Amino acid sequence: PTSNGTGNGLAPPQLRLYISQSPSNQKPGPDAADLGKQSLKMADEGFASIPVNATADVYIGVEAPAAPGFTDYYNYELAASIDAPYHSLNSTDSNLHLIDSDTNSALFITSDLTNTGPEDPVYKEWLSSPPPFIIFAHNQNDTAILGLRNSYCGLKNKAQIAAFKNGRNTDNVEVGVTTNRGLGNKPKEQVYITSLNGSSAYYGFLAIQGNSTAEGAGVVGGGGKVWKRTNFETKSGWSTFSRGQVY
Fold first, then answer.
1. Residue of 92, 91, 10, 81 lying closest to 50 (CA atoms)
2. Which residues make Cβ contacts (< 8 Å) with residue 10, sequence separation at least 6?
3. Closest C-alpha to 98, from 152, 143, 135
4. Is the separation of the CB atoms in 41 and 16 below 8 Å?
5. Among residues 206, 111, 213, 69, which one has the least CA distance to residue 150?
6. CB-based burial of residue 116 (10 Å sphere; 0-12 exposed, 13-18 middle, 19+ buried)?
7. Model pTM?
8. Per-block mean pLDDT, blocks of 10 residues, the chain (247 long)
9. Quick check: helix, strand or coil at residue 170?
10. With b meaning 16 or more CB within 10 Å and e meaning fewer, what string describes 79-99?
């Protein structure tokens, strides 16, 4: 939904996900005949997941609540998997660490990609492999992603910087693998974002496109993964920093 100007800068109400495993409740939802035979999960910033121990048919319902102050429709992706979650969220760790920012750019590193030593084949493989993560970034004064900040598809469609293949403003993001920043000289992904507004607060989101090697229906983990958002600010006036070389 899109604010019609009366939403007071708030996020639209969240979708609700219902699950039933009872043949007597094949249409789970707020108007189900037997409310006791269903599970309910309200989406949190656009993400909801319910684990199910399925021994028979599973019935799924999605409720779009009334959204006064908003227009247009809710859109969502619904997936079920017996292998691994199709969509994933790490709501505990951001895995994204700000090194420095200036008036128009910001530099980040991730946590270590491996704990192995320099002589280990895994360590060497990370140095020659494409960076595994992508980045989303969005000015906090823009409300377009409110209610979608845990949703991979929401950020993919709405974030001002969506640095996946053929995404928005990808020319403003440079990524690489480095061992020169952070502790331990371990391989980390380095992310450099440019063309930001000065003296502004931003959200940064680390994510994986699909499962990092493939995406889409039929792919285990193909719906993407998002980590807890990182808040960062650009500086006022005119300032720059040295970002060094990306290896």
1. 81
2. 69, 146
3. 135
4. yes
5. 206
6. middle
7. 0.91
8. 81 96 95 92 98 95 94 93 96 96 95 96 95 97 95 95 85 94 93 95 97 92 97 83 54
9. helix
10. eeeeeeebbbbeeeebbbbbb
